Amino acid sequence: MQRLTLASRPHGSLTTEHFAIEEVASPTAADAALLLRPRFISVDPYMRTRMQAQGYGYIRRWEPGSVLSGYTAAEVVASRHPDWAAGDWAIGHLPMQELLAHDGNGLRHAPSGEPPLAWLHPLGMTGFTAWLGMSLLGQPRPQDCVLVSAAAGAVGSIAAQLAREAGARVIVSAGREDKRAWLRGLGFDTVLDHRAPDFGEHLQRVAPEGLTLDFENVGGRAFAAAIDAMRSGGRVIVCGLISQYQSPRPRQAPANLAWLGERGVAVIPFVAPDYGDRFEAFLRDMSPRVASGRIHWRLDMVQGGLEAIPSALIGLFEGDNLGKRVVAL
Ligand code: NDP
Predict the structure, then answer these.
(1) Distance from residue 132's CA to the centre of ligand 1 (Å)
(2) Quick check: bond before 273 cis, omega within 30?
(3) Which residues surround ligand 1 with Cβ inside 6 Å?
C-alpha cells in the first residue's frame, strides 16, 4: 500500500521534490473497527502552512517524514462498528494513504449512493469557511459594497454568492479570463482581475464610493488595492493571504495597512477550526441552499491518485484551479 509523506520542509515555493510516496504494509480489517478506502481527497492552501517550521498555532505542523492528511471522502470497506456498514461513505480528516484502519471517532456519515462530493466543498470545510467569514462575521446587508477576491476558487465562490443572497452589491475578482467568464456566467456583473497591475484603478472605477466589506483571500498587492478602496467604517474579513504563503517569514503586510485604522475599518481575521461549534448550524443553513441549487458549486477534479496530490496542491499557488480542487484516488 502507498502513502504520501512530506520528504522535506519547503522554504520557498513548494515543488514535487518536497513529497515522497512510501510503500508500507496494508492495514487489515482486524486492525480497527473500520477499514476505509479514501476515494476523494481535498487539497487546500493551509497545507503549505503546515509544512513550515512555524505553522498556525491551531494545527500540528508536519515534520519531514510525516504522512500528509486532508479532508477525505472514504468508502467503508469493512466494519465491526455498530454505526457503520461496508459501502457507507465517511467524511473526515484522514491520512493520505490508499487504505486505513480507523476507530470511527471524528468521522461523519455522508448519504449513501453517489460520492458525497458536496461534503468536501459547499457542505465541507470550504463552504463552512465562506459561511463563517461572510455570513457570520461579515454580515453583508443590502447597502454593502463587497469585494471577494479569488472568487473563482472554493471559498471565494461560495462567499460571493452568500453576499449576493444577502442583497449586497458584490464585486468579484479572479486571475484568469476563463475564471472571470465563469463568474460572469454565475451572474456577477462586476468581475475584475486581482493580478492586473491596474487592479486598484479598476476597483476605484467600479466602486467610486468605496467598499464597505472586503473578503480577503489573496493578500499582497491585491489586498493593498482593496485597502485603498475601503470606505470609512467598513470591515475587512481576513480569510486568507494566499499570495504570501510561500514568502519568507516574517511576511510583509501591505504598506497602507495603517489606513484601515485611520478610516475606522474593522479588521476581522478568523480561522475556521475556532468555530467548530457552529458547524451544525452551518449545515442546517447551507444544506437546503445546496440541495435546491441556489448555491452553485464547481469541483476541479484531478485524477491520478496519491501521486497527483503534490502537483494538484502546488497548482493552487499558481492559480491552476477553477472551483474546489479535489484529487480522486
Ligand atoms: P482557492 O480554490 O481559492 O485556490 C487558490 C486561489 O488563490 C488560486 O486559484 C488563485 O486564484 C489564487 N492565488 C494563488 N496564489 C496567488 C497569488 N500569488 N496571487 C494572487 N492570487 C493567488 O483556495 P481556497 O478557496 O481553498 O482558499 C482561498 C483562501 O481562503 C486562501 O487564502 C486560504 O488560505 C483561505 N482559507 C482560510 C480559511 C480560514 O479558516 N480562515 C480556511 C480555508 C481557506 P486566481 O487564479 O484567481 O488568482
Answers:
(1) 16
(2) no
(3) 44-46, 126, 129, 150, 152-156, 174-176, 179, 195, 217-218, 239-243, 270-272, 316-317, 319, 321, 324
ipTM for the complex shown: 0.99
Read off the pTM. 0.97
| Alpha helices for 207-278 (secondary structure H) | 220-228, 258-262
Q: Consecutive 10-residue runs of the chain (329 residues): their mean pLDDT?
A: 97 96 96 98 96 78 96 98 97 98 96 92 98 98 98 98 98 98 98 98 98 98 98 98 88 91 97 96 97 97 98 98 98
Q: Which domains does the chain have, with CATH numbers?
A: 2-120+298-328 (3.90.180.10), 125-273 (3.40.50.720)
Gap from CA of 242 to ligand 1 centroid (Å): 5
Secondary element (H or E) of residue 317? none
- Strands 230-238 and 266-269, how do they pair? parallel
Q: Tell how far the Cα of 122 is from the centroid of ligand 1, in angstroms.
A: 15
Q: Distance from the CA of 82 to the center of ligand 1, in angstroms?
A: 39
Could you tell me the three cell numbers for 222? 491585491
Contact present, 173 and 151 (Cβ < 8 Å): yes
